[in-house]
Design goal:
The chain is an all-alpha fold. The protein contains five helices and two strands, in the order αββαααα. A two-stranded antiparallel ribbon has the order 1-2. A hairpin with a 3-residue loop joins strand 1 and strand 2. The protein starts with a helix and ends with a helix.
């Protein structure tokens, strides 16, 4: 019978576990967890939450929670659900000592714990600030590298333009060199033709002069000299007549 009850309870709890597994794997499980409060809520008598009193006040009044507690304690004792024995007195003594210790040394211990907690938080904050600073510097370095990568394209374009200008300069220099060489050769041909023409003219003049000189006879030479002398005399007389007038 016990085994059957265990099997029945397991079979009854299995769908609930499946539902819980679906609940924990739902998208809501990715929601941020709310921050825990630094200090607990208000309590009365050290252990009773204030919310219980606020819940019972509208229905039972101010004394309702106390009457509920006293009645519940009387019911437990009268029905002997809880029996007072020596352990009760020992628990009461221990509770009194604990309450006294908490009230006596609680503020000092709390201050010491808060100091340790503040030191831990400060160290964690320093680590966080250092990490944030390093990450911010890394972001700035990454942006600078991206800016350099963008400027690299401009650098490559400038280098391409420089190479194109160098190639164009070399081409023009070669064209200029070819032009000068062609001009030199044309000037050489023109000078050669001019030299040939001048030599031909000089040869022709020399040949004509030589033939003319060789064709003149001594009698013609004497006649031409006499004619020249006569012309000179006539010119001299004309000049003298002009001078006397």
């Amino acid at each position: 019978d016990l085994l059957r009850l265990c099997l029945i309870s397991k079979s009854a709890c299995l769908p609930r576990l499946v539902q819980l597994s679906h609940l924990h794997t739902s998208p809501n499980s990715q929601a941020p967890v709310p921050a825990l409060p630094e200090k607990g809520g208000k309590t009365r008598h050290g252990i009773i939450p204030e919310e219980i009193f606020q819940l019972l006040y509208p229905k039972t009044g101010v004394t309702g929670p106390y009457m509920l507690g006293a009645g519940l304690l009387t019911y437990i004792l009268s029905k002997e659900i809880y029996i007072i024995n020596h352990e009760t007195f020992a628990a009461a003594c221990m509770g009194t000592v604990i309450i006294y210790g908490v009230r006596k040394f609680g503020p000092d211990v709390a201050a010491f714990a808060d100091k340790l907690n503040e030191e831990k938080v400060q160290k964690a904050q320093e680590v966080k600030d250092l990490a944030m600073t390093s990450l911010a510097q890394a972001v700035l370095d990454e942006k600078k590298e991206q800016w350099r990568a963008e400027g690299r394209q401009m650098l490559f374009d400038a280098k391409r333009n420089n190479v194109a200008m160098l190639l164009e300069t070399n081409r023009r220099e070669r064209v200029h060199m070819v032009t000068n060489e062609v001009k030199k050769r044309l000037d050489y041909q023109i000078a050669l033709q001019t030299l040939h023409r001048r030599m031909e003219q000089e040869h022709m003049v020399n040949w004509v002069e030589k033939n003319v000189v060789t064709s003149i006879t001594p009698q013609q030479e004497k006649t031409s000299i006499a004619k020249c002398i006569t012309d000179l005399k006539v010119l001299a007389k004309v000049q003298q007549a002009k001078a006397t007038v």
